Amino acid sequence: MPQRTLRKISAARTVNIANKITILRVLLIPVFLVLIYCYAPGREWLRHMALGIYVTASLSDILDGYIARRLNQRTAFGARLDPLADKLIINLGFVFLAANPTFGEVVPMWFPVVVLVRDAIIVLGAFAINEYFGPMKVKPRWTGKATTVFQMSTMIGVLLWVPFAPHLLMVTVVVSAASLADYIYAGCMQAFAKDAA
User: Fold this and answer.
1) Whole-angstrom Cα distance, residue 58 to residue 61?
2) What pLDDT tens digit does each residue of the chain (197 aa) get?
3) What is the pTM of this model?
4) Alpha helix locations (H) across the chain?
5) Same domain, 171 and 186
6) How far is the CA of 93 from the CAs of 23, 35, 166, 194, in angstroms?
């Protein structure tokens, strides 16, 4: 079979329905961030649109995962892009919330720093273990899933201006710290097991 035909088949498998939904979610991120940054009292439609886009992005995350499993459309491209899209909309979303003076009353600048530092430590830790102890299997932890749920809830709570949003934010910080400790423990256990072997 000609090389060009093989490339076309490979590209067709990569850009399937599930991955198209993920790409659409990535394209929604800059729109979401602009709406957050431009929001000010009296421009409630911007906040409502930002909330609508965030909910749409969250639902599309569930949809593309379902389609990938149901139609057997799992690809290496999708496996990398999907979690990246999730992290970008959460992490950058909190950065832009903190940078907006109105939202900044609820989301202080240290909050996105905590979120970003947690993710950076987990990624760098996994990289270090892979480099020094060989390939490691990163399994999703329940604390990681809980952190994602609380981060999403905090984002929605802030965009809805719920009165308990500051409390939700503090709970998210505690859950994030517990999740980081859990991942560090799991990583160390894998590293020690490989070292002993």
Assistant:
1) 5
2) 455 543 444 444 567 888 888 899 999 999 999 999 999 999 999 999 999 999 999 888 888 777 877 777 778 777 788 888 889 999 999 999 999 999 998 999 999 999 999 999 988 888 887 777 767 666 778 888 899 999 999 999 999 999 999 999 999 999 999 999 998 888 888 777 765 55
3) 0.84
4) 3-14, 17-38, 44-70, 76-99, 110-133, 142-160, 165-196
5) yes
6) 18, 10, 16, 38
3-state secondary structure of 190: helix
Whether 148 and 96 map to the same domain: the answer is no
Q: Take residue 114 and report the two structure tokens written for it.
A: 């905590």
Helix (H, G, I), strand (E, B) or coil at 2: coil
- Final residue in a domain of this structure, among 74, 100, 126: 100
Residues 80 and 137 in one domain: no
Q: Residues 91, 121: one domain?
A: no
Final residue in a domain of this structure, among 76, 100, 124: 100
A 10 A CB-CB count for 157 gives: 20
If we measure between CA atoms, which residue out of 10, 32, 14 comes closest to residue 81? 14
Cβ(96)–Cβ(37) below 8 Å: yes
Nearest to 155 by CA among 50, 59, 81: 50
